Request: fold
Amino acid sequence: MRQIALDTETTGMDIHAGNRVIEIGCIEIYQRQPTGREFHVWLNPDRDSEPGALNVHGLTREFLSDKPRFAEVADRFLDFIDGAELLIHNAAFDLGFLDRELSLLGHPVRISARNPVLDTLKLARERHPGQRNSLDALCKRYQVDNSGRSYHGALLDARLLVEVYLAVTAGQGSLVLESAAPASMQSIVDAVVVRLPRRIATACEMELHEARVSKIESKSGKPSLWRQWASMPI
Reply:
């Protein structure tokens, strides 16, 4: 399966206040292995970032002034994510902003209608209910090194998200039965051979066992199941 970890940075949290996307970072994964393919752009929003957002990502209007606008990279972005499942932490936020950017260009289709989406925040809350499940908290829980995250960055956060996702879902790979596999559950069980070491009881162990069985019979007043089984013809 082809998957893409995706993250964005924006000029502010409120989409209805005219805030814009200023960074997109994507990391491609195939069959649970990063492929080395990435998509990363900074974008000129033609406005200042709100103070709270600027403190988080540090991307000033001056730095972004010579960067492309979303319209210039939209097609490349859509081509990169085409056909992939998107891994997004708090997907509603990022998709809301990306859909807004596309709608400004006249794209009527939402990204979630083009691509399957796995919200890793919801996944983490299912795995760890009642706990903090921010990306930083998950990095700490799964021992993912995020020491370089002095500021949030879309590409850096996408890379961390890949490591966190693989850690959270470790051991959850699909079990695929080949067409030549046994057809019934009993034949599957029969096909699994468990070889246990053979051990013969010593004379002392047999004596202790006999005494234990006799004691049980004395208390119950009837022959033990062990003797009934042992007296059966082979």
